[in-house]
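Shipment paperwork, digital attachment
Item: protein structure file
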Amino acid sequence: MPVAARENTRTAKKGAAELMEELNADTAKLHAWIRTQANSPAQRPWFADTSDARGELGSGRVAANQLKMLPHRWRWREISPFLFRIAELARNAEVKPLETTDRQGILLTNPGLGGRLQITNSIRCSIAIYNHGDIAPAHIHSPNASRTILSEKGGYTNVEGERCECRRGDLVLTPNGTWHDHGNADSEPMIWIDMLDWPLMEYFDCVWVDQNYSDGTRSNAKSQPEIHSDGHSTRMYGNGGMKPLFTSNQRGWGQQATPMFHYRGVEIRDTLHRLRKEKGDPFEAIKMQFVDPVTGGPVFPTLDYCAQLIRPGEELEFKRETCSTFVLVIDGKGFTEIGGQRFDWEQNDILAIPNFLWRRHVNTGSEDAVLYTVSDAAVLRAIGQYRSQGKHRDGKVVQIVQ
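Attachment content:
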């Protein structure tokens, strides 16, 4: 039988995809793959599917590396004992953890991300604890980062020579390309939450860290000299709608870096409480965004930071977004429903809300609830991929335009 006839007979018995798959044994040696499968996105069409569907991971070669984060809650009462055990071990150790790891704390892992050190596909989160006298050496890196202070006294962070004395609820930003170091001069341990866009930078293979600080006179110094006193960036940039013109607004050498580093928790809460009698948003209640005072945009080009107040008994309506979101409970008690699952929360608890899932917050306590959120909405807006929908109590779905 002629070769062509034999091939036709094989093709008749086997599908073309099967035959092409057999060829892939050879193309693999060339680091190539003959396509034998259709695309299988893990997410259903955004506007067409308004159900509570979570999406499903695909199968086969085209979906080999798919991961979907899951909604999750980390309870403070379960995590905090380990932090204090770390502090005790560090206090009594001959070689301090900071001398080998540069950091001292716990990284959170999302159960849907295969053990990766991240809570969403784009955000890493860790909780640090430092004893009296501990210092994290001066360092600089490409990821954007922040500290949210949980302890009543939060030690200090020195950013580009500005010493930020911290208290509970403070937010300290360390934009990409800014030198920073941390320390605790207080008698009690200090605790904070680190947030970074590390996974996103890692995806672009754009992560680097440098710890060889030099100011021209000192090399490999552990701490930066304190050039600016506590509150410097607030005095310069905390005057709404006004930008200083008598100095450069570039701090550090990262691109699109906000020059305002320190937001004080007491002022954040005062701002929210002054607005608590406003009607608010049916999906977010009273919510304020932290912005770069120079551009008016998000504090980082990748991450969006907000604070929101939910009044006692307030039940928000369902909302979903294309961004994934981290939530920290600063004050109050309540629950969040995510994709049909209920997660009760109280002070210092942490939530991870996946993109595309319907969620709502409810304040079940007798006091105002204050939540801090971090999402990747900023980068999604920049690339034209941010969308959000709301669902009213009558089930009607609306497109939210902001």
